[in-house]
């Protein structure tokens, strides 16, 4: 053994005091983090048994022993180290100081279902958000299989709506744009609430998608609505009727503010009368007719679904 090195990993020797603190002399990082980074499971166990702090932070505040273990590229060693830390009652929901992310965020980003299960069984929170408001589900959005698995197994509430800063997960996905349309479809398929209103804007996801001209997201939302209507879902049919009447009233108010105008121009020798219909009025009238048809169709669907036609 090289003088000054530990018996297992070759890391610098640690005094009993350093072990208790989880640090190594004047080193920048706690010794326990250095052992994890070196993938030395025996040294990790030795340090923990000697009283090292398993909930310490890295010097820059961007890591903890549990998060460092999850970031290990070797999945077998990763799982062994996570299992050891959980056995010794590591704080599974400990937040990083600067981002607010937890081990659950990292495990989902790593797409390691075995580690995710370990964290959940140890009390890991699947609804926690980072300081920027990003939900845990956001970290699985590029893997729809994982997202579906989390939702199907009730590991994540697709409708984390309550008092959270950015509303539901659907609101967050809509804000990201059309690239996240598939994530919205997956969340809807597993019970996300389409008609919940954001408490800041009092708008639904559909309202915001229309406002932001999210073409792909609107296609997914309409597909979901048609599917529920086809099943005879009473709540969806009723909400669509209500939404159609809201649009009708808005257009009716808009129409009343832009009446048809007649302009008369008189000269000394000739009197010319010109009738002008503004483009705004014409467009409104056309849209109103379309909306009336839509409302009638929606009501017909509602009545047919309930045996009234």
Automatic annotation (TrEMBL):
One of its GO terms (biological process) is protein K6-linked ubiquitination. InterPro entries: Ankyrin_rpt, Ankyrin_rpt-contain_sf. One of its GO terms (molecular function) is ubiquitin-protein transferase activity. Keywords: ANK repeat, Repeat. ANK repeats lie at residues 99-131. Residues 1-30 are annotated as: Disordered. Gene3D superfamilies: Ankyrin repeat-containing domain. One of its GO terms (cellular component) is BRCA1-A complex. Transmembrane segments: none annotated. This is Uncharacterized protein LOC106151901. The gene is LOC106151901.
């Amino acid at each position: 053994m090289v003088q000054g090195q530990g018996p297992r990993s070759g890391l610098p020797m640690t005094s009993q005091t350093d072990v208790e603190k989880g640090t190594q002399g004047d080193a920048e990082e706690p010794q326990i983090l250095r052992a994890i980074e070196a993938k030395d499971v025996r040294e990790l166990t030795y340090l923990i048994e000697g009283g090292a702090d398993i909930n310490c932070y890295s010097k820059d505040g961007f890591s903890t022993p549990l998060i460092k273990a999850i970031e290990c590229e070797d999945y077998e060693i990763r799982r062994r180290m996570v299992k050891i830390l959980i056995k010794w009652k590591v704080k599974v929901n400990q937040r990083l100081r600067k981002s607010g992310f937890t081990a659950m965020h990292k495990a989902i980003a790593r797409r390691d279902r075995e580690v995710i299960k370990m964290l959940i069984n140890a009390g890991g929170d699947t609804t926690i958000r980072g300081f920027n408001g990003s939900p845990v589900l956001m970290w699985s959005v590029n893997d729809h299989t994982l997202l579906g698995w989390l939702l199907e197994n009730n590991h994540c509430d697709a409708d984390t709506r309550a008092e959270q800063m950015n509303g539901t997960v659907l609101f967050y996905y809509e804000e990201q744009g059309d690239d996240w349309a598939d994530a919205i479809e997956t969340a809807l398929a597993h019970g996300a609430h389409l008609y919940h209103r954001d408490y800041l804007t009092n708008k639904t996801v559909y309202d915001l998608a229309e406002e932001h001209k999210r073409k792909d997201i609107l296609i997914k939302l309409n597909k979901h609505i048609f599917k529920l209507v086809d099943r005879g879902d009473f709540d969806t049919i009723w909400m669509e009727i209500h939404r159609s009447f809201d649009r009708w009233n808005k257009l009716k108010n808009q129409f009343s503010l832009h009446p048809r105008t007649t302009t008369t121009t008189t000269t000394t020798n000739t009197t010319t009368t010109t009738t002008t219909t503004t483009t705004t009025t014409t467009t409104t009238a056309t849209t109103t007719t379309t909306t009336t048809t839509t409302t009638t169709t929606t009501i017909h669907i509602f009545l047919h679904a309930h045996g009234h036609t």
